[in-house]
Amino acid sequence: MSDPKIEGYEFKPGYSGMAQDTASDQTMFKGVHWGKAMMWIFLLSDTFIFSCFLISYMKGRGSTTVEWPNPSEVFGLHVFGVDVPLLLIAIMTFVLITSSGTMALAVKYGYEKNRKMCGWLILATAIGGLTFVGMQAFEWSKLIHEGVRPWENPFGAPQFGSFFFMITGFHGTHVSIGVIFLFIYAYKTFAGHYDERKRGWFTSMKGDYVEIEILGLYWHFVDLVWVFIFAFFYLW
Amino acid sequence: MVETDKKEQTTTHKIGIYLWIWGLLFVLSFFSYMVDWYQFQGMLRWSLILIFMFLKAGLIMAFFMHLFWERYALVNVLLWPMTAIACFIFLMVAEFKYTLFTRLLYFFVGG
Is the dihedral angle over the CA atoms A47, A224, A150, A67 positive or is it negative? Predict the structure, then answer.
């Protein structure tokens, strides 16, 4: 989505373009807003953090001699007299994907300078994130009520609790921070800060709709991490 | 696929591509939930989980995070470090097998 126009510089596509961008003794990520490049670097480091969590979970689960709790029973819900496996987690997954989709559209409408549409979509994303955090709080309180602790649980291997609280807690923190920023950016969009190129609070950078894309990168990353947590922790 | 507004110099993509990816993500999530619903076991379960997971992750990164349209200089800087994670996974697989082996040996066999 970068705007490939720099005066006096010809952008080449593909690997020759990459060699040229990297070797030209100037900025490396040409045509990429610095905030976006920095957000990507941050997300890369965050990827390593979540990888370490999931790898330690793999190591803990693989090396225990006690049987691991069956996630589809532990996270099942009893609705209308029927036991549905993983129901809450499935709904949470769909909510997060929905909010990811609205965020992608918000970025598109932002670049098209469609202020109202962009603002409403960011607000929808924030509400989706809030719903997700709410359901996670419900899930946590349910499990704590059933006696799951970081050091013991009634279902099986005691490591289960510590990995569960650590991984989903860290992810939930990311979602919560994202929701706060989504509300702030929804306000800034509706107030027209990006149309008037108004400066932000801690920066001399003039407001630009690229900030919506940067926020979007963070939000999609949160969804991306959930894809891996859903696969490894809940389904495996 | 790319519409360029000459005056504003912004590049956006048609809404259809986002809706398609969105729909695909829903379908793939539904499929991965079905893996648990029908209680597939063994290699079938693990391979299906991994296939749906990587497809979803790839779609999100390529289209929602726009990596498909980014310069290769950025894409390569972001994706090559993932090989370090792959190496780490292999190291820790060896580690947990060894830990399990020693635990079984000392807890049950009695060294």
Answer: negative
- B46-105 pLDDT, tens digit each: 999 999 999 999 999 999 998 998 888 889 989 999 999 999 999 999 999 999 999 999
Crossing angle of helices A34-63 and B72-79, in 10° steps, is 20
Residues A15 and A56 in one domain: no
A103 touches chain B (CB under 8 A): yes
DSSP state of A232: I
Domain boundaries, position A16:
1-32
Q: For testing the chain B interface, which of A36, A77, A227 should be mutated: the one with the most B CBs within 10 Å?
A: A227
Global ipTM: 0.88
Q: pTM of this prediction?
A: 0.90
Q: Are residues A100 and A130 in the same domain?
A: yes
Residues A204 and A110 in one domain: yes
Q: Are residues A201 and A112 in the same domain?
A: yes
**Interval A49-107: pLDDT, tens:** 999 999 999 999 999 999 999 888 888 887 777 778 888 899 999 999 999 999 999 99
Are both A18 and A113 inside the same structural domain? no
- Per the listing, tokens 């079984």 go with B104
**CATH classification of the domain holding A177:** 1.20.120.80
Residue B51 touches partner A, C-beta closer than 8 Å: no
Q: What are phi and psi of B5, to 5 degrees?
A: -90, 110
Chain A contact present for B100, CB below 8 A: yes
List the 15-44 stretch of B: residues with Cβ below 8 A of A: 15, 18-19, 21-22, 25-26, 29, 32-33, 35-37, 39
- As a whole number of angstroms, the distance between CA A147 and CA A150 comes to 10
Residues of B in contact with A85 (CB under 8 A): 36-37
